[in-house]
Amino acid sequence: MFKEAIINKMSMKAIITMCVSVGVMCSCTNSNDNIAESLYSQASEQYQSGNYQQSVALLDSLKNNYKDDIDILKKGLYLRVLNQEGLIKDEIASNDSLISVLESENMELSGSFKYIKLKDMVEGYYIHKSIADKAGDDNRSTVEPRIDEADMFYIVSYLKGNSVSHTSVALSSAAGEVSSKTVAYDKSRNYRYNSDGIAYESITFTNQECDTLGYFVANNNSSNVKLTFKGKKQYTVKLEPKMIKAINETYRFATNKNRGKSAIKNKMFLEQKLQLAQKQIEQTKASLQQ
Asked: Can you tell me whether residue 117 is helix, strand or coil?
């Protein structure tokens, strides 16, 4: 009898322990549910406020920490695709704004350029009207900025009266100095000749070889820019203010044109992404209602 009492007492203790454990588990479950609901509510509030990135971050936390709560994860998935739609719409608005700004600037700049194509030329080019009267004239020492038919900025250098055998050029001001890439003497893009004892040199630099020069002028507001021809020797001249302006506006115009092309392509891409996101919204909504 004494033994049975001990057994009963132990059984009762085990039952009490088990009940306490179950109670704790229930309490933990309720606590977890409350935290998960709170995270979802916060994510929903951020979405309603247009803070899509913050909302997604909260949903990531919900997904990573409460993987067993299927119902709330379903709701979270639906909210996630709604956020994705919002993010894409924001991108579209930003991209449309960029297109509008570029179109406005290009409309203003286009009036400052002239198209030139001579009979012996395979392709023509655009040149700033302020320097168009001397386009292709090698009877001087300067650089001539142009835009090709693919809307790429490039430069032609001209050096008269100094046999430098230049293969590159550099621009400098109080802001520093930048150089073009080197173009080896090939009697084609880099050619030289003498006429009546006067040396003439010229190089056509592609966009990849001289983009740094255009960027330098366009991003450093200086009226005192020096041009240096670099080769076996060096020769430096001061650029005329109208040439500095021509380089600046030619580079900006070419850059804007290419940015505009990219923005239009991006617009098409974003519209496709939006359609896909909206399709996912309908699919996720239907899954939520099942």
From this structure: coil
